Amino acid sequence: MTAPAARPAADPTADPAVSIVMAAYNGAALLPPTLASVSAQSFGDFELLVVDDRSTDDTRDIVAAWPDARIRLIALPENGGPVNARNRAVAEARGRFIAGLDQDDLCRPDRLARQVAYLDAHPQIVLVGANADNLYGDTLRPPTYAPITTPALVTWLSWIENPLVWSSVMMRGDAARALSPFTRPDLSCAEDFNLYHRIQQAGGLARIDDVLLAYRQHPGGMSKRYATLMHASATTALADVHRPILGDRADTIAALLVRHNMGKQPVPDRATLWMLGNGIATLQTAFLASHPCDATDLRLIRWETARRWAGIGRAALRTGSVRLHEVLAVRPDHLGLGYAGIDALMWSAMVGGGRRGQAFVEKIIRPAPSRANT
Q1: Helices (H), the chain
Q2: Any idea which architecture 18-225 has in CATH?
Q3: Most CB atoms within 10 A, among 119, 143, 212, 259?
């Protein structure tokens, strides 16, 4: 994608309505389409602060030469990681609102306009995200997040997973600047997840359900390269939130949520499945007791929680680590079966049963070598 025609310089004395913050590092290959998607916004009262974290490619040159005076380069003298770079951008931001964006994601033309309008119309909301397509190369695939949300549902989901794509969020600038630090370097790769909890002291979370972003998925992305660190940081972030409710169990339940709900890894046995289901049920009871929810909120919270429980159960059934009657026996009463239905669970159980049978056959026909043969 080529750069847009040069735009006149913005008034340096006027603060923009929106400051977009971006940490950049060796992003030259994918950065131009991202910058072009920002320049093409229908809402023009913004600045984009690109903090280059001492790239070794042409990232700095691309940003410096971009023909849009609203896009500003901040070049760091040494590499300090994306959290520090993003915090530097927020420190420089002048906008009434602050929006997140990574160097490889693409904004729909009306993204800023829709989110500014939402925050202006909902003063009780401090941070709003948007739904996002998944971009694999040049192929767009539909979102995998909940299709319909309410602020209560987004807040509940933040108790068991990361409900928002960082590149889709916009928050009130005064609330963002009140956080010290804005994002925590000790929670690298899950610093946005932690931010969503900390900023709730100033107001609620919400999401625009329309797709306003293309979230790029590729092997070089942070979530792919640093999965172990991301899981550890997410576990710490969740445990901190859960400790007042779960006490000594907080670290264990947080680890299970990150591994089996967020990470989609199958549970190893019935006991683990029971522990996870009991933890989710305990958290949901505490959430509903402390957050006002109307009938729509309650229906969506129950439904989306059930959908996640069904996914956890199906993953375990497909690997054969648990049996169908075990999934049903340890299911908390209110979780239901989610989108899966009993037929989908039975199919997963059949797949798992086939794998158990195959493992048994292989054990019989290919026994371990005897001591005499070693």
Answers
A1: 31-39, 59-65, 82-92, 111-121, 151-157, 173-178, 191-198, 222-225, 227-246, 250-256, 270-290, 295-319, 324-330, 341-365
A2: Alpha-Beta Complex (3.90)
A3: 212
| 219: its two tokens | 């092997």
Q: Going by C-beta distance under 8 Å and a sequence separation of 6 or more, which residues neighbour residue 196?
A: 127, 158, 162, 163, 164, 205
Residues 6+ apart with CB under 8 A from 152: 291, 292, 293, 294, 297, 300, 301
Of 249, 183, 210, the closest CA to residue 111 belongs to 210
What would the two tokens of residue 122 be? 């909902």
Q: Which two tokens stand for residue 341?
A: 């239905």
Query: Which tokens hold the place of 275?
Result: 């522990």
Q: SS3 of 127, please?
A: strand
Contact 38, 71 (CB under 8 A): yes
Q: Name the pTM for this structure.
A: 0.86
- The tens digit of pLDDT for each residue in 193-235 reads 999 999 999 999 999 999 999 999 876 555 555 789 999 999 9
CA separation for the pair 90, 101 (Å, rounded): 12
Per domain, the residue ranges of the chain are: 18-225, 227-362
